[in-house]
Here is the input.
Amino acid sequence: MVGSVLIIVFSLLLLAYWFRYTCLLLLNQAEEEIPAAATQEMAQSNHLSFVRVRQMLREGSQDLSLESLHGSLKQDYKVLQYLVRHTPDLEMTSFERHLLDAHYRIMNLWFRATRRSSASLAHKALLEMSSVVFCFAREMGRRAESPSRA
Here is the structure.
């Protein structure tokens, strides 16, 4: 009985590690692949603020309102989710999209849990959420630049 519980716990820990590692790998790959100018152009054309939010989070200024940044990211995420779901021919597989969607939701919960107790943890959660939004925006930017678009 104890052995079964240990195996289940160990398996769940390995699954969580795999999930986290895979999501971070997808996010790092997204940031390396597309130029920042193309992503900024896509964000401006769709009135998205994630580029500004990412810049503010990376600068780490003391007067950040994490709640307002969180609201901006949530709005951008909703817009990009709609665009991603209704755009054919994306290079991102459905599995990758679902993984990143789950990662965003987990980081959103983590932000909510830590926003009052630890500003640094909430800040990191927002930064990862902005990376997911960036990844979806990258896919939309890639789609917009493809020569086969109608």
About this structure: Helices lie at 2-33, 36-45, 50-59, 66-85, 94-114, 119-145.
